[in-house]
Amino acid sequence: MSQTVDRALSILPLLAEGPADLGQVADRLGVHKSTALRLLRTLHEHGLVFRQSDQRYRLGARLFALAQEAVENLDVREIAHPHLLALNERCGHTVHLAVYEDGEVLYIDKVESRYPVRMYSRIGKPVAITVAAVAKLLLADFPEAERRALAEKLDYPTYTSRSTPNAAAFLRELEKVREQGWATDLGGHEESINCVGAPIRGADGRVVAAMSVSAPNVVVTAEELLALLPLVRRTAEAISREYSGHAPLKEA
Q1: Comparing C-alpha atoms, which of 111, 153, 151, 136 is closest to residue 207?
Q2: What is the pTM of this model?
Q3: How far apart are CA 191 and CA 11, in angstroms?
Q4: Rounded CA gap, 96 and 250, in Å?
Q5: Residues of 213-251 as b/e, b for ≥16 C-beta within 10 angstroms?
Q6: Residue 44 to residue 57: CA distance in whole angstroms
Q7: What is the tens place of the pLDDT at every residue in 5-35?
Q8: Rounded distance, CA 74 to CA 53, Å?
């Protein structure tokens, strides 16, 4: 039975390359045409493949519907939370998870620092969109026209002397984030708070969420926090792989 299931599932990536006839499917699986036909008929009955008028087979609409339903039901917070906890246990600092929704960047998860000095951020609270590392990561993934339109609509409060001053500076920062694949907020919102973050991507490569590690400079310096960047990026990559349905990477 397991061999039959394995063979049937092997047909799907073949058809993802384009329509194929019975002979091509049988050759790829290394089976007789009668066996390939039984597998294709079963998949066809479930709507996972479709037989065209030219007798070739392609992926069925039901497969795309299932994929869309699965994506819509994915809970990035549920998937990310164990990874955020593990990161917090290793570094001890506050860890955030955020998403873009209805024109705002919102925290959807937070793991508190083990240190006495705590941050006032709350789950469900919008972030300072022009300076926060998680906001830069989410907005940097927008197409250029959308980035420009959004940047022109935003206000640019002067939280500190390091705050983003205007749309031009914000767009330059977003372009930098796109190129390097990570972001920081080094005293841009609060003079005493530094932050480093990395993106979480879906199966299509688009950024679906962003995570960050934050700490006051009375606990660690900005340079010490930046030293955690490789760990932060590995955590984000692990969440991305699980969210996308990919096998986890093996530890070296």
Answers
A1: 136
A2: 0.71
A3: 57
A4: 25
A5: bbbbbebbebeebbebbeebbebbbbbbbbbbeeeeeee
A6: 9
A7: 888 889 998 998 999 999 999 999 999 999 9
A8: 36
Tell me the two tokens of residue 173: 């920062």
Structure tokens belonging to residue 140: 């940097």
Cross-strand bridge partners of residue 107: 98
pLDDT for residue 69: 65
Place of tokens 């240190």: 115
Question: Which of residues 234 and 203 earns the better pLDDT score?
Answer: 234
Indicate the residue type of 105: V
- pLDDT for 193: 94
Question: CA–CA separation, 46 vs 25, rounded Å?
Answer: 18
User: In sequence order, what DSSP letters do the residues of the chain get, joined into one string?
Assistant: -HHHHHHHHHHHHHHHTS-B-HHHHHHHHTS-HHHHHHHHHHHHHTTSEEE-TTS-EEE-HHHHHHHHHHHHH--HHHHHHHHHHHHHHHH-SEEEEEEEETTEEEEEEEE--SSS------TTPBP-TTT-HHHHHHHHTS-HHHHHHHHHH-----SSTTS--SHHHHHHHHHHHHHHS-EEEESSSSTTEEEEEEEEE-TTS-EEEEEEEEEETTTS-HHHHHTTHHHHHHHHHHHHHHHHTPPPPPP-
Per-residue confidence band for 62, with pLDDT thresholds at 50, 70 and 90: confident
Over pLDDT 70: what percentage of the chain?
93
